[in-house]
Write a structure and sequence with these properties.
The protein is α/β, with parallel strands linked by helices. Helices cover 35% and strands 26% of the residues. The chain has 11 helices and 14 strands. A hairpin with a 2-residue loop joins strand 4 and strand 5. The C terminus is likely disordered.
Amino acid sequence: MEPTVRTAPIVAEGLVRAFGDVRAVDGIDLEVADGEVFGFLGPNGAGKSTTVRMLTTLLRPTGGRAIVAGHDVVREAAAVRFSIGVALQDASIDPLMTGRELLHLQATLYGIGRRAGRERSDELLERVGLTEAADRLVGGYSGGMRRRLDLALALMHEPSVLFLDEPTTGLDPMSRVNLWDEVRRLNSEHGTTVFLTTQYLEEADELAHRVAIIDHGRIVREGAPSTLKAQVGLPTLLVDVDPGTEDAARSALSTVGEFRPTRAGRVAVGLFEGASGAAEAVRVLDAAGITIHHMELNTPTLDDVFAEATGRRLEGSGEADPT
């Protein structure tokens, strides 16, 4: 029986892509809600880019199916391409054209009239901060400028769904933050659904409403970042106190959390109420007359989520990306 087509902007059901005997994507199921920023997080070689290439019709699935912007990625590939915007990690931009010329060309390719295309180009150049560089050859652009131009090109036809594949890889911190701000604005002001692949934990945490963590072609965790981190364990409050007062501090903190091993002169407690319990911890220590020399709160991270799911850390995996 043919599966019922759902109306979410992105739906994948049992999606598979094999390269010979290697299953780069091994039967994943996804559903991205309208107006959502969805983070697809994983190490190099996990299958992130392969998944994006299937969802954007650049690679034919070996098995399963996907519906993007209401169209089947295999049977209605042209309709999918017309409905989405795509900024890929390895996108090539002609270095012998100017930013403005490339935007005008993009408008022509999407059937946008000359006047409307020029107006749209000016609007996008301003939006991504490239107005002053618009008439310079792209070959002289920095990496951050190229990424912002690529984003503008992807937005020319006002797509309802935007795919960003590793959009900030290799960018300096300021360029990365600027691109994050633009993604937030697109989502909040225009309601654009964004599918973001990244290997940066901070990027997923900053931008995504929900994330899926992929490892060896399979999704190992999915949910809101805060929910996934909370499932790993309680945040740990570390409090440095005067030597000899540790037992009194533990007694005072017994109602706010569970104790964890640590060094002399320090008390560690997993807060029952999460981060909000830190204020109560300060209150009870003050009431008990305990001097606090230093305090820090260590909350679970998405790397902790990945480690809990796979048994290894996400950052610095050092694996090459064959897909």
